[in-house]
Amino acid sequence: MLENSPGQILTDTESPYAIITIMKKPKHPAKIAEFTPKTCWVGEQAKIIYASEVEAELAARVAEYQHHLPASSLKIYSCPYGNHFHLSRAENQGVKSGPG
């Protein structure tokens, strides 16, 4: 119900402003899914698992850009505990700076 003038109450359809619609919150808003990457314990920390060297390389370049790091500051290495790859800032043995 809308109030048009003192003492006069109009319903939404009788109002001259009936074309204005009011957005309502849905009763059951959609749940936003949260992505949690798979991790592997290397040393004393859990590192994100990358299935391929190319995937790790792309993730490294994106992270360097987002965190304003120098180019090629993140290194890729093959995990000694599984068939996947990780990123590192440290100069670990067997670390490569990119594919090839």
Task: Please provide a written account of the structure.
With 100 residues, the protein is α+β, with helices and mostly antiparallel strands. It has one domain. It is 14% helix and 23% strand. The protein contains one helix and six strands, in the order ββββαββ. It has one helix spanning 53-66, and strands at residues 2-5, 8-10, 39-42, 45-48, 75-78, 85-88. The strands form three sheets. The protein has a two-stranded antiparallel ribbon. It has a two-stranded antiparallel ribbon with strand order 3-4. Strand 5 (75-78) and strand 6 form a beta hairpin. The protein is extended and about 50 Å long. It starts with a strand and ends in a 12-residue tail after the last strand. The mean pLDDT is 76.
Helix content: 10-25%
- Give a quick account of the main beta sheet: strands, pairing sense, barrel closure: 2 strands, antiparallel
Note poorly predicted spans: none
H/I helix tally: 1
Shape: extended
SS-derived structural category: alpha+beta
The gyration radius over C-alpha positions equals 28 Å
| Overall mean pLDDT | 76
How many separate domains make up the residues? Answer: 1
Please tally the β strands and state the result.
6
